[in-house]
Every structure is written in C-alpha cells, then in structure tokens.
Amino acid sequence: MASMTDEAAVRRQDALRSAVDIGLVSEAEPVVGLLDVAGIRQAATSLRAAFATPGVAVEHTFAVKAASLVPVLALLGQYGLGAEVASPGELALARAAGIPPERTVLDSPAKTTAELREALALGIAVNADNPQEIARIDALLAAGPSASPIGLRVNPQVGGGSIDAMSTATATSKFGVALRDPGAEEWVLRTYAERPWLNRLHTHTGSQGVPLPLMAAGVRAAYDLAERINAAAGRRQVTVLDIGGGLPVNFGSDAITPTFGDYADLLRAEVPGLFDGRYGIVTEFGRALLAKHGTILARVEYAKSAGGRAIAVTHAGAQVATRTVFAPEAWPLRVLALDPAGRPKGGDPVVQDVAGPCCFAGDLVARGRELPRLDSGDHVALLDTGAYYFSTHFAYNSLPRPAVWAYTAVPGAAPVFAPVRPAQSTADLLAESGAGLPPLTP
C-alpha cells in the first residue's frame, strides 16, 4: 500500500491556508478548486513506471471526462500522456491542449457519422462500439483511406462491482459487443476476417467499486479473443489491446490503494502474454491520476442547528459534489474543518451535517460527521476531489462554476498559484441561459 507523502499533505495544508490568505476564496468567491501539480506529476510518473516493460509499446491516455480542463490536459501531455475522448467537446479540449491526434483515442457508444469522419481524417484511434458503427466506418473508408488505428470494443460480461453505474462489463451493459450473447463471438471473428484494417481490440470493465481481479478478468477475455482473431487470420492482425482504465480510488484516507503497480503486477500474473511484446498496450485512466491531488475549499456561511443536530451551511454542495450528494454511500468524501484563516480547526468533535447552498433538503456533503464545531466564517475542505468534481458541475439554482487553481510548492515560501479555470461570471451564466435573445412570441 502506498500513501500520499507527508510532503503532499504539507503542500495541501499550505495551499489551503494561502488560498484564504490571498483571497482565492473569499466572500466574493466562496468556493474554489485546488490542484497539486507535484502530486499530478508523481501520479503520471508512477503510472508509466508500473506498465514499463522492455519491448512493449505502451501508450497511456487520460480520460478527459475526469478533468475537462485544458491546462490540466496540457500538463499531463507534458508528462507523456495522451487523451481518451468521448465527445466532440472533449476532442476539442484535447486538441486545444496540444495533444496530437496520434496520442488520442475516440470512445463513445453514440458517435455520429460526423464525429467518425473527423477522427478518421485526423488519424485518431477509433474504438467502434457496435455493428452499426462498423458499417458507418465501412462507408467512410470506402470514400477515402485513413491512417487511424481502428478497433472494436467488446463487453466480456464478467460481472459488476459494488456500484452499478460504474460497472461496464455486466450482462446488459450499454457498452461494446456483448461477447457471451449468442452468436456474438462468431460475428466478431467474421468482422475481423472481412476487415484487415481492424487492428485493435478494446475492453473496459468499469471503475470505482470494481475490484482488480474483475478488471483483470475483462482484460484476459479480450486478450484471449485477440489470440483467436489472430489465429484465424494466420497473422498478427490485432496488434494493440486497449485495456481501458478505471482504477478505483480510496476515498477513506490518504492511502493510495490500489496502486498502478498493484494492477500492472496482477495483469502480469493473470495475462502474461499481454507483456511478451506481441501486443502494444493502451490505457485510459482518469480518476486514479487526479482524485488524490485536488481539493475543494469553501466558506461556511452559517452555523445552525435542527433537532439537536449542528449544521454547517457552506458553499460546496451538489453543484460541485454531485455524486457525493446524490449517492453518498458510493461517493463519500473526507471533510477537513478549517478556521477563518484556513488552518486546521481545533476543539472537541461535534456530530454535525455539512450542507451545501442548493435549495433542496438532501444537499449534504457529509451527514452526522464528527468534526470540530464549524462556525460562520470558517472553511471546509473536501478532499480527493481532483477528478470529476471540477469537470462535472451541476448548475442547480444557477450557481456559477467556481474557479480552479493549480499550486506549486516553493521551498521556504508560500505556494505559487496558476489559474486553471476562471470562475464563471454572471455575464457568462446569463449568456448560456439565453439572455439577450429575442423574447418568445406568445
């Protein structure tokens, strides 16, 4: 088991204190996101080291949905990661970040013909999801050649983890060709035999709540299928296996478990042929690269009580912690109680709720949590929020998207902050809500 270093915890605390001190969080900007640049670098480095194998070409891509922020994608690109995209918007973000087409993978269960045409024109790798999509690609390739690597996503139907919504290899998953359905494998073998340009195979078993052995079983099923495709073809037709991503994150402590090394070691034991040099490997990790290196910092606006329960009303709720609010058992977050200066708050623990600003009763990021009593003017820090919490804003009550800042530690000095995303202005919010358009005619 690995853990965040003491240095990482110190960096985080220094950043929280400095963010308050210099006004990144304030009455005017009561909630903000913070990202640790050194932590992100360490995560990217550990990923590359875990899969590094002499004679094996490995391409790591980052799942853009986990942090759809151009400066973050550009930073990961500097550390050698490409981009896995699942929409025209995500592709545009990856291109704006300077991720080249040859390090980009397009996945989605609902690609339009226009999306496919653009990807094939750019030479982006495409993972087709279903027979209808293969037919669309047939038509596009008939109209003109493409340098894109092209594969097929298969669902090994190995089962689900503890969170249904995060399990993508169940019997009825919407993703990929369901391999155990009658006639499915025969169709896959025939499809590859008839299309020599199909040279990849893709699978993804799930993410949070999915145990490593289940993930490895999904990869094993894809590997075995690639072996059968190549045997039938009499050559190495499938040259790359895209094994997806989805490494779970521990939200209960600073411990990093499982690690990329844990997963790679299990794959080496369970699917040794994956690392013998006959196949290239593509990964698509997201949450596991960033979650531990982000924090949401918010002001406590009011402290009150109801039915004997203390309640801290803060500016961080469903708009930034959507999954935690609506599925708290699956997505619990650790909360730090901080004083008005952004320092750890002392005092005996008090059972209290930490509420957000949204106008519905369930807008709670922590329920019945023992924390030093929070008062008006204090702050809370929501830990492990570097992935998804900054990129999947929920615009309830027209609450604006908060600013996101990256911080870099400077020995002997306060952290240096760099902007990642500005706070959404009232003008921005009005514009995207149709302000200025002609009134509707009765």
Automatic annotation (TrEMBL):
Named cofactor requirement(s): pyridoxal 5'-phosphate
Gene Ontology MF terms in the entry: diaminopimelate decarboxylase activity
Active site, UniProt feature: 359
Stored Pfam families: Orn_Arg_deC_N (PF02784), Orn_DAP_Arg_deC (PF00278)
EC number: 4.1.1.20
Gene Ontology biological process terms from the UniProt entry: lysine biosynthetic process via diaminopimelate
N6-(pyridoxal phosphate)lysine modified-residue sites: 65
Domain Orn/DAP/Arg decarboxylase 2 N-terminal: 40-290
InterPro entries tied to this protein: Ala_racemase/Decarboxylase_C, De-COase2_C, De-COase2_CS, De-COase2_N, Orn/DAP/Arg_de-COase, PLP-binding_barrel
Keywords attached to this entry: Lyase, Pyridoxal phosphate
Limits of the Orn/DAP/Arg decarboxylase 2 C-terminal domain: 292-386
Entry similarity comment: Belongs to the Orn/Lys/Arg decarboxylase class-II family.
Protein name: Diaminopimelate decarboxylase
The organism of origin for this protein: Actinacidiphila cocklensis
